[in-house]
Amino acid sequence: RPPGHPHRGSSLTNLGNALSKQYDRSGSLDDLEEMLQLLREALKLCPLGHPLRGSSLTNLGNALSRQYDRSGSLGELEEMLQMQREGLTLHPPGHPDRDSALGNFAKALGHRYGRMGSLDDLEEMLQLLREALKLRSPGHPHRDSSLGALANAISHQYDRSGSLDDLKEILQMRIEVLALHPPGHSHRDVSL
After folding, report:
1. 114-152 burial, b if ≥16 CB within 10 A, otherwise e?
2. Local structure of 142: helix, strand or coil
3. Is the distance from CB of 164 to CB of 191 less than 8 angstroms?
């Protein structure tokens, strides 16, 4: 699938995603840089209106999140936010992957909130995570991660406000997550 091949973008994405898994194991900066290069090239092959642009933006945004975790670069943080924001616009209400797009953008806002402490970022993050949780109703296989992410975000709000209502909401969510992680579940220790 050389340049010009109609499925080159898929191959670039698949290789980038494989390098992502390898990076998770190795922590190699070379793997991370190659992954970013491949995913940037894949995005270039998905211009506005392309049906795979949303997933390409998400893949690159998630890779930039890993790069930001490593470097702390404000430029990478802003680029990640741009990718995730545009990705969310391509996953409107009713799209089957909207819950993931909401979570990805909220995570990016969480990075910026951690860096800058902007109340606007915290409020938008909370709004996005609440919407994602509504899409992951009881019985959804990823409800536990949405509950955990929202509880973490509300913890930031509690740190600012000291509100007993925030604390009660956090506790209710943590109790629900624990119920979703019964004895023998791989994440039960974290929930406890």
Report:
1. eeeeeeebbebbbebbebbbebbeeeeeebbbbbbbbbe
2. coil
3. no
Which of 29, 32, 5 is CA-nearest to residue 18? 32
DSSP designation for 147: H
129, 176 Cβ separation under 8 angstroms: no
One DSSP character per residue, 159-173 reads: HHH--HHHHHHHHHH
For residue range 135-154, list pLDDT tens digits in order: 999 999 999 999 999 999 99
Q: Are 38 and 28 in contact (CB under 8 A)?
A: no
Among 46, 44, 37, 39, residue whose Cα is nearest residue 61: 39
Indicate whether this model's pTM tops 0.90.
no
Nearest to 103, CA basis, from 133, 123, 82: 133
Closest to 87 (Cα-Cα) out of 106, 125, 61: 61
Output the 3-class SS for 103-121.
HHHHHHHHHHHHHHCCHHH
